[in-house]
Amino acid sequence: MEHIVTVQEAVTAFAPWMEPTDAELKEIEAEMPVITAEVELLDAQILVLGRPVSELDERRIRRARRRLLAAVCEQTNQVSGVEESA
Question: Taking a C-beta distance cutoff of 8 angstroms, is the pair 64, 44 a contact?
């Protein structure tokens, strides 16, 4: 018989050495436009789950997809620009 126990490290994950580094925070900050665009798209899709999709809903979802695509393209261009200059 296996016993189920909690993992102490996961419960007390607030130790100072477990904080994100400055480099990790910069990476997260660089990804924020994509994350925000993904959330906006998800919000637009959630709005239409329980009802018929109207023309306005279709436009809202299309705009959110375009914003996400633009954010991903911008991030890709920045990353490839950094790699080329390195």
Answer: yes
